[in-house]
Structure formats: C-alpha cells, structure tokens
Amino acid sequence: GIYNVTDSTPATQLEVYSWLADHFHRPLPSYGPADLQRRRGWTNKRVCNRRLRKTDWQLTYPAYRDAIPTLIEN
Which of 40, 45, 64, 74 has its CA 20 to 30 A from that of 10? Predict the structure, then answer.
C-alpha cells in the first residue's frame, strides 16, 4: 500500500520557515512574487498520516521540531 509519511504536527510552510529562522537566529527568507505556474505550494493541502499511525511503525522523531536540533548536531 501507499502511506503518507509525515509527523502529527501539521504546519504551513511559513510556520516551518519561521521556526527554523528563530531556531537558527536568522531572518526569514525574502518573499518574491508568487509563481502561479508552480504545480505545488499554493493549495495549502495538508498530508494526513492516519493510515500510518494504525501500523506499528513509529517515527524516530515525533515532530520536525524534535528532529532538526539532533540532525544538526550529528
């Protein structure tokens, strides 16, 4: 079967970028004009991991906020 692999912390791209900027004490990336020809990024779709959670498989990190500091250290 096909599973969406995502943590259980839904976040917009802006929320992730804002968290990364705060974490690394850096400014947010600059905004540019919207590229309406992009296939993704303008729909605000969220990925659901409900099917994955019904299995015994566990993520190493429960959320991206938990993973980033450890990944950077390594």
Answer: 74
Give burial (CB, 10 Å; 0-12/13-18/19+) of 66.
middle
The reported pTM is: 0.69
Q: Residue 49's closest CA among 1, 22, 10?
A: 10
Question: In this structure, what DSSP letter does residue 31 have?
Answer: P
Q: What is the pLDDT of residues 39-49, one digit of tens each?
A: 666 666 777 88
d(CA 58, CA 46) in angstroms, rounded, equals 20
Residue 30 and residue 46: Cα distance in Å, rounded? 24
Q: Can you tell me the distance from the alpha carbon of 7 to that of 15, in angstroms, rounded to the nearest whole number?
A: 15
pLDDT at 72 exceeding the cut of 80: yes
